[in-house]
Inverse folding.
């Protein structure tokens, strides 16, 4: 009897995998919309690839693989079986490049296929919301093929693709954070109007002050650890400029005219953007090849330890993605990916930038029940899609490149692809992305004043 029940359960799961996304996640979110379920499913594939990349770059992974008899070239052998797998390729930064290349190709392919899908009645919408098992097989197939790409110039060329894509994704992350802070601020203000005003305003003030305090603390620490009295001029300029820019956008956000045009704008958004800007500044300075201006995390906690010195030309620096800024980058990436999948915003400017429509909530009160007794998610896109399918996949394409650069710490492969090294272009890409992000946020504040004839509500 138990076996029969198990087979029935497996058959139900198989039908979900080959069917719609509304069935795939209905057991977890039975009253959600179809558009939300599909985004969550694609985001899950991205996070699954990220997890595989993290495992591949873990220290000592190559040694563990070589212990498997008959698997790695140069590892343990079995009599009569030839070791054919090059474990130098399937682990380390090369494996991350190939895994993220496969994910980028997968999402870019869907971005092309889904161009100008207007509603769920379009036949391509069925591809978007269904056939998850075959999509998974497609991703696996592309991944396997990617590991057969010869080294050559692939690593160096793909590095530059990663730099450009990550630059754009950092901007998207900032836009999502602005939208999150806007929704957060609006939600708490509405609750303050409904009752217990002092409590909710006190909570808003507390969170805002904490964000500003963390940002200011970061500035102080940057000056202490990432600058030298007679060196590190670039770092001094970066820290000072971003501090000034954050003060400017914070002041602009509470100007009377800005408040009149956008009552929901305030210091909560500015504080969150300031904190994120300081993170990007820290991440940029962590890629400076000048070790006097870029102390390692170990040297920061060992005050009596020797001053870090640059590695010799013959010494191949290893990729250490699990440093503090890399871990923080992963956390922000995971948050933004999840938020992009479930976001339901009423911010017209952000919706226009992110190619989405005004939010209608994440769940419905009652979900329909199918003939098989399974609750189905609501198809809320029969008239028009609630988000741009193509742009969503393009964002995941950029996210694949961003996670590649984060896991490899933005290090650049050297000419013989045997080592990784930091480079100033990565520093400038991150700093410029922080400036552009602040400019976009400033524009969202002053746009209603500059263009009074347009509707920004």
């Amino acid at each position: 009897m138990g076996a029969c029940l198990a087979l029935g359960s497996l058959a139900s799961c198989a039908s979900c995998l080959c069917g719609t996304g509304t069935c795939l996640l209905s057991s977890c979110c039975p009253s959600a919309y179809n558009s939300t379920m599909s985004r969550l499913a694609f985001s899950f594939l991205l996070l699954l690839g990220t997890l595989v990349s993290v495992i591949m770059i873990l220290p000592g992974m190559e040694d563990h693989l070589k212990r498997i008899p008959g698997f790695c070239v140069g590892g343990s052998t079995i009599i009569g079986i030839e070791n054919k797998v090059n474990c130098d390729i399937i682990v380390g930064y090369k494996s991350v490049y190939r895994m993220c290349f496969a994910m980028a190709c997968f999402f870019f392919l869907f971005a092309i296929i889904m161009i100008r899908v207007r509603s769920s009645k379009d036949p391509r919408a069925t591809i978007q919301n269904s056939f998850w098992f075959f999509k998974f097989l497609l991703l696996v197939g592309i991944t396997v093929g990617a590991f057969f790409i010869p080294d050559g110039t692939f690593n160096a060329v793909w590095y530059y693709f990663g730099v450009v894509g990550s630059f754009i994704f950092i901007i998207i992350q900032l836009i999502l954070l602005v939208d999150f802070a806007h929704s957060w601020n609006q939600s708490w203000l509405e609750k303050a109007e409904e009752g217990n005003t002092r409590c909710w305003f006190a909570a808003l003030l507390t969170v805002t002050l904490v964000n500003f305090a963390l940002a200011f603390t970061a500035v102080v620490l940057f000056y202490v650890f990432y600058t030298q009295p007679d060196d590190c001029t670039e770092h001094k300029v970066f820290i000072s400029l971003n501090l000034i820019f954050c003060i400017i956008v914070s002041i602009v956000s509470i100007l009377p005219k800005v408040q009149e045009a956008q009552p929901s704008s305030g210091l909560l958004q500015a504080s969150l953007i300031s904190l994120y800007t300081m993170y990007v500044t820290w991440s940029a300075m962590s890629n400076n090849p000048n070790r006097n201006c870029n102390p390692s995390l170990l040297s920061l906690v060992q005050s009596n330890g020797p001053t870090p010195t640059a590695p010799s030309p013959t010494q191949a620096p290893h990729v250490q993605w699990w440093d503090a800024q890399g871990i923080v980058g992963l956390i922000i990436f995971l948050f933004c990916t999840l938020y992009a999948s479930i976001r339901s915003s009423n911010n017209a400017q952000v919706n226009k930038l992110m190619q989405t429509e005004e939010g209608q909530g994440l769940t419905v009160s009652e979900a329909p029940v199918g003939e098989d007794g399974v609750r189905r998610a609501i198809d809320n896109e029969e008239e028009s899609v609630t988000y741009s399918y193509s742009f969503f996949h393009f964002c995941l394409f950029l996210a694949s490149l961003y996670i590649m650069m984060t896991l490899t710490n933005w290090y650049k492969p050297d000419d013989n692809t045997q080592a990784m090294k930091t480079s100033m272009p990565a520093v400038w890409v991150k700093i410029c992305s922080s400036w552009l992000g602040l400019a976009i946020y400033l524009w969202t504040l002053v746009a209603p004043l500059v263009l009074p004839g347009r509707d920004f509500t």
